[in-house]
Each structure stands twice: as C-alpha cells, then as structure tokens.
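Thread: Newbie trying to understand structure tokens

Hi all, I'm a second-year student working on a class project, and my supervisor (Dr. K.) asked me to get a predicted structure for one chain before our next meeting. I've only ever worked with sequences, so writing a 3D structure as a token string is new to me. If someone could post the tokens and maybe explain what I'm looking at, I'd be very grateful. Here's the chain:
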Amino acid sequence: MAGKLNLSDAAIRAAKPRAKPFKLTDGRGLHLLINPNGSRLWRMQYRFAGKQRMISLGSYDAGGRAGLSLQQARDKVSDARELLKNNEDPATKRKLDKITSQIANANTFNVVADEYIAKIEKEGRASATLGKIRWLVDFARPKLGERPIAEIKPAEVLAVLQAVEKRGRLESARRLRSTISRVFRHAAATARAETDPAALLMGALAVPVVKNRAAILDPDRFGGLLRAIDGFDGQLTTRAALKLMAILFPRPGELRQAAWSEFNLDKASWVIPAGRTKMRREHRVPLPRQAVAILRELREVTGQGCGNLVFPGVRSVRRPISDGTLNAALRRLGYSKDEVTAHGLRSTASTFLNEAGHDPDVIEAALAHVDNDDVRRAYNRATYWDKRVDLMQWWADRVDAMRDAEIIAGQFVERASKIAGR
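---
Reply by user tm_fold:
Sure, no problem. This is what the structure looks like when written as tokens:
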C-alpha cells in the first residue's frame, strides 16, 4: 500500500549490494536504490498529469551527515506530496529552485551595487556624487559583498551600519543605510530581490547632530558683511563673485565655474547647464538690475580675451577660481568659518525671504531645490518665472538696503549734528 512505511534504518544497514541494482520500498512512492558498487540513493516515484515520474532525493546516510537519513527522505516525500496536492510538479519545482539559486549566487550584493553605480553614472550624476556613493558602498562590501542579495537579512545590514556608527561616524552610517537601500531597490526593480532590508532599519541608528552651514541671519550683521565685501582689496573677480553670491544665492560651484556663454545680460537671465547643477537639471536664474551691473563691469575685465570663464583663476584663464577662494576671502575679511561660508549665503537669503512672507514654492524654485513630484516640478518650472523675477529684484533691493543701512543712519546723525550746532 502507498501509505504503508516498510523500511527501517536496521533493514537498510542489513541490505547488502547485489550483482544488479535493487530497490527497498518504503511507501508513498519512496524507495532506496542499492547499486552493485554499494551506493544507496533515495528515489521517489509519483504520477503527474497522467504520467509516471521519478525524482532523486539524495544519497542515504543514517547520521544525515553526507546524505539523507530515512526520516529526512520521508520529510522530502511529504513536501513533494504537498506540491502535488496543489497541482505542482515536484520535478519542475526543483528545476526552478535550482535556476533561482544559480541566479541568486550570480547576483551578489557586489554585482548589483556595481550595476547600480554604473546606472547612475550613465544618468549623468556628478563625479563627486559617484565618488561618495562608491566610498559608502565600500563599507558594506566586506560583509555583504559576496552574499546573494536576495538572501541578505536586516540583521546583516544592521551589523554593517553599527560598525560604522561605533567609529563615531553617525552621518556616514545614516547615508550608508540610504545607499544600501537604493542598491536593494535596484535589485527589486530588476527582479533579483523582493524586499529592501535596509528600509526596515530606518530609525535604528543614532540621529547625528546636523551642523548647518554657517550663515548670518541678522540684518545688521549681514549689512556689515556686505560692506566688508565692498571693501575687499583682493582680486576683482573674487569681490564680484562674493557680491553675486549674496544677490543670486546660487551654489558656489555653479557660480565659480560660470561661463559668459550662459548669460544673456540684455534679457537679464543666466542659464546654468544641467551638468553643473546638483540635481543634473538645467536651472534658469533671473538677474536683477544689480547683478546685471556687476556682470557688465566684470565683462570688461574677464570677457575680453580671457576665455569664456566669468571667474578665471589667477594662474590660468582656462580654469576657474578654486573651491576655497570665496571662503578664504571671507576669512581674510575677518569672518570665521563658524560665522559665515559662501554656501551659507543661500541660507541667509532663504531665511530672509521666508520671513518676509514670499511664496515658499517660489523660494524653493529660486534655490533650485527640485520637487520629487514630476508633475509638480514641471508646473513649477512653467509658472514661477515671472514670480522669481520679482522675488530676485526684491531681494537685490533688500541687500542694498541692508548694506546701506549704517551709511544712511550715519548720514542722518551727521545732519542732526549740524542742525543742533546752528
């Protein structure tokens, strides 16, 4: 009978090889094939779709070390019978499982991570961004690199993150979790993983204390900075760049690498090409009257036979001023890195504009902060230009007012003194 189990380990051990292969039948289609060379192999016979079929389960081993014990073989038969109940062929299932396993072993974390990095490189990510991502992924490679990505558990990812966290690099650990998550999402999008274990670890790490870029947020102190910039006795290009940073508040790298071909001073616009913006999207900047005046004056110096760069370096007109030039100028003016940075001028503008009640969406568009919603981003680009023109002129006028406040106040005191002396 199919349901009757006939074998025992004692009976199997007692069976001796014969001149020809023979079977020891257990039940439910399970039998042990004993070959003349002494090998003992588990087989299961069954019917599927009206046909007689057989699958190999493995070799016999009473201790279950190198092969399957009698009980383990019976357990496999039970699993196969469950598949048959659900109208699944155990042989087909085994082939699919083998293919899946081969694919998993070929798609390790390293393979998928390298593929993800290559993908975003093709999408035009900045070399600096790619370098940071590679640097972060390298933290994960020693423990996760050779693991099939579909088999990696949250605890494994957490161990990698905690190792970075224990070194006091809280912000790096936070960014590493996000980067690993993006690798897993790429694996899921390409059918090589079903879950993102890194996503489950949000909140599992210590929150780093965010140190904002130093910025002056007091109108009087900011006015003092503007007057100091006006009196800067260094390179003309550096002084002009600082003035434009205050008025236009771009990212420093976008400004210092600017080319004259990007500006249309007659139409008062500056188009920053996608390759130089943080989000790799072209950004148009309305130029207020004050910015146009600065650029026209500067063009007489760097726009005549000095190449295409608006802010060429001292040593070569083919290279722009360096990353540290603007911050070094601020230090030279007596402002420490804890007081103000070139990038911090963006925070100054953003704070004052928001405090003045300007539309936050227009401010975000002016700052080139990209909305994650594609439809909303397209709408913003299409409708905010006129509002941004007004906003930028308002801000430039406000910059003038803050810079001139002490001068105006001094003139008032002087006039009052003359009147009192009469």
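A couple of things are worth pointing out once you decode it. The domain at 219-416 is CATH 1.10.443.10 (hpI Integrase; Chain A). The first strand starts at residue 22 and ends at 27. Feel free to ask follow-ups in this thread.
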